C-alpha cells in the first residue's frame, strides 16, 4: 500500500509539472496484447483518481478514444507515438517523459507503439465520479488504426 501511495504521489507531482503537455491513454478496441492494470484508486470531491499501468506491445495501439477527464502519464519504458484526429503526430514520448491528455470528445486520439519493445505507461486518470476510463471513437479517416 505504501509503495502504491508513493507511486500515486510521484505521478501526481509529475502531472502538476506536466500540465502544459499533451498525451496518451487506453481504450477499446485496443490492439492484441494491450493491457491495463489498476494500481490504486480513490474518490475525492466528486472526482475519481485512478492510477493505472498500461502496456502496449510493439506494433499495437490503444484504439481511437477520448476521456471525460484529464489524464497525466509517465512513460516507464519504450516510446509512445501519439496522434490526433487530424491523423497528425502530436507527440512522441520516450522513457522518462510525461504527457497530459485533455478531456472531451473534441480531443479524440490514439497512442501507438511504433517501436520494437513494449511501451509501459503509468497513467493518472482524473475523471468525474463514475465516468468510464475512456470513450471509444471511430477512426477519423486515418490510414492507420
Automatic annotation (TrEMBL):
Claim: Signal is one of the keywords in the record: yes
The protein's UniProt keywords, in alphabetical order, are: Signal
Highest taxon above the source species = Bacteria
So which residues are the signal peptide here? 1-27
Q: InterPro entries from the entry? A: RmlC-like_jellyroll, RmlC_Cupin_sf
The answer on whether this UniProt entry bears the keyword RNA-binding reads no
Task: Please give the name of this protein.
Answer: Cupin
Amino acid at each position: 500500500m505504501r509503495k502504491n501511495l508513493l507511486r500515486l504521489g510521484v505521478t501526481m507531482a509529475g502531472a502538476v509539472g506536466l500540465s502544459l503537455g499533451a498525451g496518451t491513454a487506453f481504450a477499446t478496441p485496443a490492439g492484441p496484447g494491450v493491457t491495463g492494470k489498476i494500481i490504486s484508486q480513490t474518490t475525492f470531491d466528486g472526482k475519481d483518481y485512478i492510477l493505472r499501468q498500461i502496456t502496449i506491445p510493439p506494433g499495437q495501439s490503444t484504439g481511437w478514444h477520448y476521456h471525460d477527464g484529464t489524464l497525466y502519464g509517465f512513460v516507464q519504458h519504450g516510446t509512445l507515438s501519439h496522434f490526433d484526429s487530424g491523423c497528425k503526430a502530436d507527440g512522441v514520448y520516450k522513457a522518462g517523459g510525461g504527457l497530459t491528455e485533455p478531456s472531451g470528445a473534441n480531443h479524440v486520439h490514439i497512442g501507438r507503439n511504433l517501436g520494437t519493445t513494449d511501451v509501459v505507461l503509468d497513467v493518472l486518470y482524473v475523471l468525474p465520479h463514475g465516468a468510464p476510463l475512456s470513450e471509444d471513437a471511430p477512426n477519423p479517416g486515418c490510414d492507420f488504426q
